[in-house]
Write a structure and sequence with these properties.
This protein is of the alpha+beta class and 381 residues long. It has 6 helices and 12 strands. A hairpin with a 2-residue loop joins strand 11 and strand 12.
């Protein structure tokens, strides 16, 4: 903003000693009654705010043996049902300028036009009406994965799911003239119960811990060294983690991104704007989805340019000084942008907003190639 104030000072100090000889008329489009033959239409820029929301979704899948976690491993509070948990990880606030449909002007040059229009366009101070849109950021909501439909737990045990048991039954056998019952022992396959499999998995976990302890203390029959020991310990840790997940469950985390745009107006300074809605169970939702709580945008204008239109008009008309050739130009103002979820501040940034500024008339003599009294700087400080 310091550079913007420098422009005003230059105009004020120089306005009394300089005069222009060009005959260029600039009018607002909605004030024209007739369409001129040699008119050039230009527009003032307006600022559109862009919010990029990044959120992470964690899916929790309970383990198949969660019921026996406390009995065989002494673990409580393990997940017992599948659910998802969302967290907003980042909100990036950015902006870009586009044509303001309420700020079209007609420039009517007489003779040779001395205003360097290309320079003003390159600086972003004015925009041509045929400007192509360089920024396209639709409000995208990326799809949701569902790992619960996949086979998450494949290694349930290191032993067979089918066991063997011996069954004794009696067979009638004829001996001489009598029949007698003779016991017969037969081995048959049986399916192990779920609790039996859970007990086997728990015993395997303790066996892993025992082997790891032997390696670390040098009590094992074979003791690897250097990199081999490191690899062996890591593999045992991974194997233990995999079997612990049979009781503790698994977590899957995915990252999602959604982009929202908002072009503020003066009335938005006193009215919070719903940017999107958010749910801990469903994540980032569109603004009209009532299943989530609203996340709002609040704007606080800094009012750096509120008196510039009065001061410039006073200086230009003082002591009978009159400038017929003036170019409409807007000195942008700045505002604090806050994204709020209830009482929690999620993001905050100070951004220059064109439409919050003041439209003034710059004498065209200050925009000539030869004079170059004014340089326009519109980048963020």
């Amino acid at each position: 903003m310091e550079r913007i104030y420098f422009i005003v000072v230059v105009i004020t100090l120089t306005v009394f000693s300089c005069k222009t000889t060009s005959e260029t008329k600039v009018s607002k489009i909605d004030s024209l009654t007739n369409q001129p033959d040699n008119g050039i239409i230009y527009a003032l820029p307006k600022t559109t705010l862009r919010f990029t929301v990044e959120a992470s979704r964690t899916d929790i899948i309970p383990g198949p043996y969660y019921e026996y976690a406390e009995k065989y491993l002494g673990m409580d509070d393990v997940p017992e049902e599948e659910y998802s948990d969302w967290q907003i990880s980042n909100i990036m606030i950015d902006s870009y300028n586009e044509i303001d449909p309420e700020q079209f002007y007609m420039l009517e040059p007489e003779g040779k036009m001395n205003i360097n229009m290309q320079k003003l366009i390159e600086s972003g101070s004015i925009l041509p009406v045929n400007l192509r849109a360089k920024h396209q950021f639709p409000n995208d909501f990326y799809g949701f994965n569902d790992p619960g439909k996949e086979v998450v737990f494949t290694d349930l045990s290191v032993k067979k799911y089918i066991g063997e048991e011996k069954v004794t039954y009696y067979k009638r056998v004829q001996r001489d003239s009598l029949f007698a019952k003779v016991p017969v022992v037969k081995t048959q396959s049986v399916t192990k119960t779920f609790e039996d499999k859970a007990e086997e998995a728990a015993n395997f976990i303790f066996m892993i811990r025992e082997k790891r302890f032997e390696l670390l203390t040098g009590m094992a029959d074979f003791y690897p060294e250097g990199k081999s020991l490191e690899v062996a310990i890591n593999e045992l840790n991974n194997l233990e983690s995999e079997y612990l997940s049979l009781f503790m469950g698994k977590k899957f985390t995915s990252t999602y991104r959604a982009t929202f745009e908002f072009s503020p107006h003066q009335e938005d300074l006193n009215q919070p704007h719903i940017l999107f809605r958010y749910s801990d169970e469903r994540g980032v939702l569109p603004p009209n989805d009532l299943r989530g709580r609203p996340v709002i945008v609040e704007l606080e204008k800094l009012n750096h340019t509120e008196n510039l239109d009065f001061l410039l008009a006073d200086q230009f008309n003082r002591e009978g000084t009159s400038y017929k050739n003036k170019l409409f130009y807007r000195i942008p103002d700045q505002a604090f942008i806050q994204v709020i979820d209830g009482n929690q501040l999620l993001a905050k940034r100070k951004i220059t907003i064109e439409q919050f500024g003041t439209v003034v008339q710059i004498p065209s003599m200050f925009l000539m190639d030869e004079e170059q009294f004014i340089e326009f700087y519109r980048e963020e400080e």
